[in-house]
Write a structure and sequence with these properties.
single chain; alpha/beta; D-Maltodextrin-Binding Protein, domain 2; 2 domains; five-stranded mixed beta sheet; about 40% helix; globular; disordered N terminus; NMT1/THI5; ABC transporter substrate-binding protein; signal; SsuA/THI5
Length: about 325
């Protein structure tokens, strides 16, 4: 009898111990091939921050389609998206059930790059030059805004449909200006030794300082697994804080997991992002509701979404605490 009771007790303890660990893997789907926007994920994996929270986490490569749609459909728990990409998914009579739960980078670091010899040192000077467009209405409206606000003629820009994958090569063709993310393409341009001008969108209106990229989650998952979601965010915060404090070591961790990446480029990018992941905020991942709302109000005012997005919809800071 004692042996039987002891067996039951041991089994109970084992089951209790198992309960501390996530019952199934938590999936985080990337938006693009692995890069320094994602370093905190790989650091959290490598340094055991997920494991310390009792989590098994899978970092999943991006799907053929949209990561945002995949998360909305419940195909994974978390994914990486962008505030502008989320807009049409939220501005709908049947919005996707997604919520941004952390800002991976605090400010929009994207903008327009051109070779210095082209003389495009102000938005109005894009007129008369070629620009590589991926034909997004939001993309083109942002270009129109910064050019016209600066006194230029948007219609004089020669739009060339082109989804640029190699900015360094593109700038040495018939393309004069390209939209880039400074932390990645900007560092590649610097490594190539090109002299360029960079027009930072966030400098041309707070409504253009939108969040890019963000971590999104499926709403049903958040409702049913709130405590687990907080653990995921805690581990990610530790990962990004490590990358902020140790950019070179974080770069080496990323390249260890993704060996096809160029270590020199990754180190340069990490040095840049170490100052951008949090910027001026005290806690990594925090959203500013005013900035979030201003961007969506601007989209609606410019007829870029079909219906208004209510204030403070689409993001939360609740899982960062």
């Amino acid at each position: 009898m004692k042996k039987k009771l002891m067996g039951i007790l041991v089994l109970g303890l084992l089951l209790t111990g198992c309960g501390a660990k996530s019952s199934k893997p938590v999936r985080i789907v990337l938006d693009w091939t692995p890069n320094t926007n994602h370093t905190g994920l790989y650091v959290a994996q490598e340094m055991g921050f997920f494991k310390a929270q009792g989590l098994e986490v899978e970092i999943v490569q991006p799907p053929e389609g949209s990561t945002t749609s995949l998360i909305g459909a419940g195909g994974a728990e978390f994914g990486i998206s962008f505030q502008d990409t989320m807009a049409p998914a939220l501005a709908s009579e049947h919005p996707l059930p997604i919520t941004a739960v952390a800002a991976l980078i605090q400010h929009n670091t994207s903008g327009i790059v051109s070779l210095k010899e082209k003389g495009i040192d102000a938005p109005r000077k894009m007129a008369g030059h070629t620009y590589a467009t991926w034909d997004s209405p939001i993309e083109q409206a942002i270009i129109r805004k910064i050019v016209t606000d600066d006194g230029g003629n948007y219609d004089d820009i020669k739009m060339i449909p082109n989804t640029v994958t190699d900015v360094v090569s593109a700038l040495q063709t018939d393309i004069d200006a390209v939209w880039i993310f400074k932390a990645w393409d900007g560092m590649a341009i610097q490594q190539a030794g090109l002299d360029t001008h960079f027009l930072n969108f966030a400098d041309y209106g707070q409504e253009l300082d939108f969040y890019s990229p963000v971590l999104i989650a499926n709403n049903s998952y958040l409702e049913e697994n709130g405590e687990e979601a907080k653990k995921v965010l805690k581990a990610l915060e530790e990962g990004y804080e490590f990358a902020i404090e140790n950019p070179d070591e974080a770069a080496e961790i990323l390249v260890k997991h993704v060996p096809e990446l160029d270590l020199d480029l990754i180190k340069a990018s990490q040095q840049f992002l170490a100052k951008e992941y949090k910027a001026e905020v005290a806690k990594w991942g925090t959203f500013d509701g005013t900035r979030w709302n201003q961007f969506y109000a601007w989209l609606y005012d410019n007829k870029l979404i079909d219906m208004p997005i209510a204030e403070n919809v689409g993001f939360t800071n609740d899982y960062l605490n």
